[in-house]
């Protein structure tokens, strides 16, 4: 039932199109929606009975705002902007980058082929997205061997290692005619567009010849190349002779959950499928529309030439916003593909329901146990911090995030501490990381967590409270995770006087605290070991005459470890743009150390 305050605001709602923003008791925006008629839509939340995620959202609403727009199309655009700005808990949210790999032919005087995760308007050719990162990389390696362009860093007055291997046309020491590049690029584009018959014939013959000559390793290598071509380039499911790039969306909704399938159709084949499952608040049409518009508003997504949608969605508005034709197939292969997408969506959701029955008590139920024990309103997001160093060396902090009892690993953050003079000063370490984390959230106008957990006692907790309250003006509950003399989770510290809050050690709430404490400790230790090891590698390289910061960075970026640098040949080291004398000194110094280490291990 709506409060008196909400009842007064409901009476004043306009019957115009626009967006509405639902807020919780902490004034955080927890849901953004759009409506053709704000009065009818917003009132429906408080005047009707609900179940599932809708009921949960309504129970947390303490206030709301509305923004009136001139047209329904404007409300679509505003909704997407508000969702991406505020990242409300109850909305479907998509990250700005897809992470799918593309094969790129660069737009340069001496072009290269490469794998990229970012699509830019730079005049380059992009092929993808590809469904398998490893296979795409192997296909790129194959292209670089069969259709070489440039693999070196450019003109250096001598042939590079790749030129000697037949994988570079020689821009490292001569002017390569543009016509030669154009001819090679034409072959690459034809290959990536699915014309693989000639290459496959050649590879199959080489594989059979290698096997006949008992060169089984070589035959296996060629067999793998054939497999990678099949995974990334060959036609997987021919849907028509029409080469138009299309994306196809369909969905299935049940019990407040929306299951979405996206099919990517390129070069007349189904090249990739993406599936998403969300608990939703609004109607299937509104949620699907929001998903589609967010999907194409991401930084790394190329619009197809056509979008295919099921019946019932606002095709006209979506087409106007995206700037591409949006159609609903009525017959033929595309309609069959649409049905297949819906069937897959239903199967995915049925599987999800079976898993949900097992998981609910262990996740959201555990969160409620914790907030009830602390006397706090129900929350969803916990951010937890821990520090790590070895006798004061290389101090770091780490943050893990749990949402509704589950780790949200994409939200984890790592911090190299910069301002701590005494590296064993836990309070100073805590102040720095809390200041950096939450001043940034304030600056970027991003939502705060419901609780902050610190691995430690009163010293760390007081440091957190001091920064939040006195420097940043924030009011976020701070909880300490206490360990016993066996270094195991014991209880919580909370409140004005840091009182001990005991949880039942057999409860899901206690188990969740234990998971958070173990996870943040693991994450901090792992990060510290990597930083410490990298500093050790850097110091070994710095000890070699002629190796400065730029050379050290090149070596570490390309090889990643001292043993791998030691195993590289002088020519391979030189191909990074390092002169012969320094390359030889690096090889001798590191190889010598490696031999000493190997000899001592046998003593």
Structural description of this entry:
With about 600 residues, this protein is of the alpha+beta class. It has 5 domains: about 80 residues, 3-Layer(aba) Sandwich (GIY-YIG endonuclease), CATH 3.40.1440.10; about 130 residues, no CATH class; about 110 residues, 2-Layer Sandwich (Nucleotidyltransferase, domain 5); about 170 residues, 2-Layer Sandwich (Nucleotidyltransferase, domain 5), CATH 3.30.420; about 60 residues, DNA polymerase, domain 1 (Orthogonal Bundle), CATH 1.10.150. About 45% of the residues lie in helices and about 20% in strands. It contains 20 helices and 19 strands. The strands form 4 sheets. Strands 12, 13, 14, 15, 16, 17, 18 and 19 form an 8-stranded mixed beta sheet that branches. A hairpin with a 2-residue loop joins strand 12 and strand 13. Helix 4 packs across helix 11. The longest helix is centred in the C-terminal third of the chain and has 35 residues. The protein is globular and about 80 Å long. It starts with a helix and ends with a helix. The relative contact order is 0.07. The UvrABC repair system catalyzes the recognition and processing of DNA lesions. UvrC both incises the 5' and 3' sides of the lesion. The N-terminal half is responsible for the 3' incision and the C-terminal half is responsible for the 5' incision. This is UvrABC system protein C. It is found in: Cytoplasm. Belongs to the UvrC family.
